[in-house]
Amino acid sequence: MPTYAEVAGLIDHTLLKPEATRADVDLLIAEAIDLGVLAICVSPSMLPVTAEGVVVATVVGFPSGKHHSAIKAAEAALAIEQGADEIDMVIDIGSALAGDISGVEADIAAVRAATPAPALLKVIIESAALDDDTIVAVCQAAMSAGADFVKTSTGFHPAGGASEHAVALMAKTVGSRLGVKASGGIRTTEAAEAMLRAGATRLGLSGSRAVLDGLGR
């Protein structure tokens, strides 16, 4: 069983609700510092933020992924300019479902070019909407395009969020070359532990306190 500190060190404490206000983001940051989590993840319009000692992540092409690659790249570049350390981009799910994996790779590569190291790029594949073969193909495209992580879900798709099966398949596909972020619907300590056992190396949580409370401090 992982410790509180081990799990906290893998959490992106997340607030992406459309109705979120600046005050809500301030509360998120304060809670992130109190909990000792690794990062916060907020909408790009909330940048810049002051979050001492906390990694700042934001989203690009969110939540549909149906944005032109040039727009995603510009959004990523602006976010980096405004202090983001990490970018979580959404692929074009329709392109993946249509078998246009080269198009998916080009989309990721465009954002990667706008997100130079040391910034990290996480690629949201919306795994619940894809079959296993497409999950594998998209993860391979993310590797080829130079991403740092693959991520299960936006948390907004009606198909659902993270699953142990998808996380395990993604982890098997990318091996040690990329991280795997499980996100979407992880609300309990048990669910978080299951994702870590499946191979997740990062957790996207909106209810981080509830998850961490189950581990003791």
TrEMBL record:
A single MF term (Gene Ontology): deoxyribose-phosphate aldolase activity
Reactions the enzyme catalyzes: 2-deoxy-D-ribose 5-phosphate = D-glyceraldehyde 3-phosphate + acetaldehyde
Subcellular location: Cytoplasm
Active site, per annotation: 88 (proton donor/acceptor), 151 (schiff-base intermediate with acetaldehyde), 181 (proton donor/acceptor)
Role of this protein: Catalyzes a reversible aldol reaction between acetaldehyde and D-glyceraldehyde 3-phosphate to generate 2-deoxy-D-ribose 5-phosphate.
Family the UniProt entry places it in: Belongs to the DeoC/FbaB aldolase family. DeoC type 1 subfamily.
Name of the protein described by the UniProt record: Deoxyribose-phosphate aldolase
Gene that encodes it: deoC
